[in-house]
Amino acid sequence: MKVPYIDLNRSHQELKSELLDAFSKTIDHGGYCLGPDVKAFEEGFASLSGFDRVVAVGSGTEALHLAGLALGIGPGDEVITPAFTFIASAWLAQYTGAKIVFSDVDSTTYTLDPNCIEKLITDKTKAIVVTHLYGQAADMDPIMDIAQKHDLKVVEDAAQAHLAQYKGRAVGTIGDAGIFSFYPTKNLGALGEGGCVVSKHAEVLDRVAVLRAHGSEVRYLNHHVGYNNRMEGLQAASLNVKLPALPEKTERRQAIAERYLARITNPAVILPQPVEWGKCVNHVFTVLHEKRDEFKDYLTSKGVGVDIVYPVPLHLQPCFAYLGYNEGDFPVSEKSAARCLSLPIFPELTDDEVDYVIECINNY
Ligand SMILES: Cc1ncc(COP(=O)(O)O)c(C=O)c1O
């Protein structure tokens, strides 16, 4: 048997005629950049997730950049950022001109470790970026307490965490701003790029809405230096087709994760641990193995698609060499990067495929 790591075609073929109908309507009304599809998506995603308002932009990366700018982060500021995450979490500080200050992560959730934050705070610290990695909410209460004590902004990178909750609250609006990505492989993915910003502060969203459209509030009059970060109508049209199934697809991801957790019995494979503050939405299912590369080669030889998410912690990325970090600075991030392996977990996987992955793992 061959089990792909991910296969978007399975859902897209099923939705093909609905998607084509939606695209046809976009062509009829002509709203290609923002427009009615984007407005409908902003309202639909807000309502499904429990947000008052959503501002759609061109990608999760653009959302991070604009959220940072809208919170007033800029040159001279320091932004605490997890060392183990997708690189875009660090682009917020980088693009706004602030200094990236990396922090280690927690060994259970791989999200920002609240115990590591306080010693990194200086009089220049302006914000903390928290990534809800793999779809698991980070432990927000202690992070918010630290932020409040030191008057810091908190940005939640929820690119991988659509519909995830922390103690019953939707991730994204616990901090000062949150972002989601609608990259095709995400739990809710467009047929191209997409992202959005959420916030409990209306003025932050007002600023993002202006910045995404060239900084212009009145046509051809620019009070602000802005960007072309509009969501495209065709991408919103695809998201509107897929949005209603998000809760059901999320439950399917969680059911696959539960199957892995219940049935993988190989003692050399360290499984993700559930936490008491909220169920993971399982964007990625990552296990640890001491001899990860051999384990990866074995699963690949058995036809099981796997990925390493992520092989290099951010403080050791060549592009951040200028920051002067060294190996050994963040042991949990480094150990995770060296041992992690992610298994197939997209909603259209069959139980037979999941059982085959489990069987291969248990036979190793
Ligand atoms: C944690 C995280 N942050 C940010 C992003 C950036 O999102 P996008 O690819 O939509 O720019 C991604 C996704 O790729 C991500 O996984």
Describe the structure.
38% of the residues lie in helices and 14% in strands. It is α/β, with parallel strands linked by helices and 364 residues long. The chain folds into two domains: 9-244, Aspartate Aminotransferase, domain 2, CATH 3.40.640.10; 246-362, Aspartate Aminotransferase, domain 1 (Alpha-Beta Complex), CATH 3.90.1150. The protein has a seven-stranded mixed beta sheet with strand order 1-9-8-5-4-2-3, sandwiched between helices. A two-stranded antiparallel ribbon has the order 6-7. The protein has a two-stranded antiparallel ribbon with strand order 10-11. Helix 2 (16-29) packs antiparallel against helix 9 and helix 4 (60-70) crosses helix 8. The two termini are 16 Å apart. The site of pyridoxal-5'-phosphate (PLP) has 15 residues, from helix 4 and helix 5.
CATH topology of the largest domain: Aspartate Aminotransferase, domain 2
- Give the overall average pLDDT: 98
Uncertain runs with pLDDT below 50, 5 residues or more? none
Q: How can the largest sheet be summarized?
A: 7 strands, mixed
Rg, Cα atoms, Å: 20 Å
Overall tally of domains: 2
Helical element count? Answer: 13
**Assembly state of the chains shown:** single chain
The CATH architecture of the largest domain is 3-Layer(aba) Sandwich
Helix content: 25-40%
Number of distinct beta strands: 13
Give the N-to-C terminal Cα separation: 16 Å
Q: CATH superfamily of the largest domain, called what?
A: Type I PLP-dependent aspartate aminotransferase-like (Major domain)
Strand percent estimate: 5-15%
Give the strand line-up of the largest sheet: 1-9-8-5-4-2-3
Supply the CATH class of the largest domain.
Answer: Alpha Beta
Listed once per kind, the bound small molecules are: pyridoxal-5'-phosphate
Q: H/E element string? A: HHHEHEHEHEHEEEEEHEEHHEHHEH
